[in-house]
Structure formats: structure tokens, C-alpha cells
Automatic annotation (TrEMBL):
Signal peptide: 1-27
Record's GO cellular component terms: apoplast
Organism: Vitis rotundifolia
Entry's localization field: Secreted, Cell wall; Secreted, Extracellular space, Apoplast
Record-annotated GH16 domain positions: 28-216
PTMs per UniProt: Contains at least one intrachain disulfide bond essential for its enzymatic activity.
Name of this protein: Xyloglucan endotransglucosylase/hydrolase
MF-aspect GO terms: hydrolase activity, hydrolyzing O-glycosyl compounds; xyloglucan:xyloglucosyl transferase activity
Alphabetically ordered keywords of this record: Apoplast, Cell wall, Cell wall biogenesis/degradation, Disulfide bond, Glycosidase, Hydrolase, Secreted, Signal, Transferase
EC number annotated for this UniProt entry: 2.4.1.207
Amino acid sequence: MAVPSVLPLLFGFLAISVVVFVGSASSSKFTELFQPGWAFDHFLYEGELLKLKLDNYSGAGFSSKSKYMFGKVSIQIKLVEGDSAGTVTAFYMSSDGPNHNEFDFEFLGNTTGEPYLVQTNIYVNGVGNREQRLNLWFDPTKDFHSYSFLWNQRQVVFLVDETPVRVHTNMEKHGLPFPKDQPMGVYSSIWNADDWATQGGRVKTDWSHAPFIASYKGFEIDACECPIAVAADDNAKRCSSSGEKRYWWDEPTLAELNLHQSHQLLWVRANHMVYDYCTDSARFPVTPVECQHHRH
């Protein structure tokens, strides 16, 4: 059911005027939006605060109750403190099936005193291998910080505290597929990945430091909710602006980064990026096509 609303855009983007929401979801309570996925006994609830525990028996993970197409998803996370080597805390969106689409934040633990690395990745039609890694301009274990995906038909933006750290632009005009036709769930988990997570797997998880705790709050989904029984093509239509039906994510101001955001992204890339698949000639002797056309 359509619900008209005046929504000032509070996401660091330019404000827009009257829009219409259909099937959007917005909340800050875990239980309204999400459900435990596995290892229920590794969930700790402290009021509005959720903690996931990793020990040498199991990690833990949760998923959204619904799937979405276009909008913005945010979670505030405080990462594992101290020696977190070998652990991975992930926050991601994904559709189902072998030809799935996926947007990933993976926080790679490290030994005490070393910076956390954040690996981002994008899968389109089941194809990934688009890794970028960066360190952060703050200690993500000392306080909560916001991690977000903004997704529309023109771009996918990865944000840290509203600063863009990665943009995947729609380049269909160059013959490249773009993730715009599959509803995606929202997920997070913590698990042991000491075969690759820290220094390429050279540093293993020290279980004497267990349990490893990742803390969560501020669960927000402002996106187009997609009923399970509705076909993907129909979802794509109902989640796109047409006629009197206007969605904030389709506004022209969100088709690309504004000038300030472009400068922020360039700053992140210049000062904090430590790996970019686009420049890895050993893995990709021929530069991937999207890297040739991307402006950032």
C-alpha cells in the first residue's frame, strides 16, 4: 500500500522533496528486521545491543526476514577487540542462487596493535573477484561505526560513517551487467577464517583469546521490500519510480556521487586503500573492463 511521506534525506546526500514509499521498511530494532540464522546460543542480547560470539565451537550469523531491491541498509558495528587474528566479521547483502548478486563488507581481524583491514567485494550474476582492501581512519574496535550500502539503478555505494569508500557504477552501456533485477537479503556473521583472513593465512586464530565478540546496534533498512511470491521482473518494476510513484533512491541527485563525496572517495583511495583488484596485473593480466571505464 502506498504511503505518501515527506522525507528529508538524512544520508549525507542532497535533500529531496515529496516521495512515495511502497513496501519500504525502516526500523532500528533487530527483532523487527532480522532473525538468527545459526548458532542461536552464540547470540547475546543486551537491550538494543546485540553481540555475536565466536569460539572454537562455532561462530554465529543472522539474516533479514525480508528481501529488498534498492534503498539503503545500515548497521552500526563495534568489531572484535584485541588479538582478532584469523577472525572475520561480515556484513553483506546477497540474492539467492548460483547467479546471485552480492555486496560485501568483510572485516579481517589482526594481531593486537595492527590495523583492521576491510575487504569489499561485489558479485554480479555469480561472478566476484572484485576485491578491494582498505584500512580505516579510526580504531573500529573502540566504538560503534556505521557501515552502509546505498543501492539504486545507477550505482552501488559502500559507506563508512557516511563516507563513500567504494562505488560500483552501472556500466550497462559498455555491455557489463549491473545488479538490478534480484531482491537481496541482508546478512551478518562472525566466523573463523584463519586459512586466509590474516596475512594470507600465516597468522592463525589464538583460541586462548576466545570468545571473540562483535557488537551491533542501529539496524536500519530503508528499502523496497519484495514479497517472496512476486517474480523478479515484477519486483524490479514495483521498486522503480514511474508516473506518480516516486522513490527517493531514483532521484537524479543520487545517480552519482556529488562533488564532496567524490573528493571523500578520492581521499580514501589515496590514503587508506591497500589493495585494488583493478591494479593487480598478476591476477588480471588484462585489466577488467569495468576498471577501464570507471572514473574513480
